[in-house]
Amino acid sequence: VQLQASGGGLVQAGGSVRLSCAASGGTLRNYGMGWFRQAPGKGREFVAAISWDAGSTYYTDSVKGQYTISRDDAKNAVFTQMNSLKSEDSAVYYCAAGRAASITIDKTFSYWGQGTLVTVSS
After folding, report:
1. For the segment 87-116, what is each residue's pLDDT rounded down to a tens digit?
2. Disulfide-capable partner of 1 in 26, 52, 66, 113 (CB 3.0 to 4.6 Å)?
3. Which residues make beta-bridge pairs with 48?
4. Got the DSSP string for 64-82?
5. Distance of alpha carbon 18 from its chain centroid, rounded?
């Protein structure tokens, strides 16, 4: 499975972006999906995840109520709507796919996209 993240860019503080993660070479139907981010000089951190059946979603505390993860298996894609963006949301965002029970830990994911940069200007 190859993952392609897109939708990043330069956005003003308070604005919104919608990140997409499109898959090719396989179906995402049986995969839990996650988003991680890495800001300059910092380690990669978990942001959001959605279970394989969309029955469960998970968010890091700092983005709860601000980000919404969703999936469309017909389109073989996952999305994250990011609202009310702040400068601390600036980072490279990576999507990942995995079949492990835990989908909030990066080590459990098998496939990774290349990342898309979100820059929030104040």
Report:
1. 999 999 999 999 987 888 899 999 999 999
2. 26
3. 35, 59
4. TTTEEEEEETTTTEEEEEE
5. 10
**Structure tokens of 20?**
């997409």
Tokens at residue 122, please? Answer: 């104040």
Check: CB of residue 111 under 8 Å from CB of residue 25: no
48-94 per-position pLDDT tens digit = 999 999 999 999 999 999 999 999 999 999 999 999 999 999 999 99
Determine the pLDDT at residue 100.
84
Spatial distance between the Cα atoms of 63 and 60, rounded to a whole number of angstroms: 6
Residue 106 CA to residue 9 CA, distance in Å, equals 24
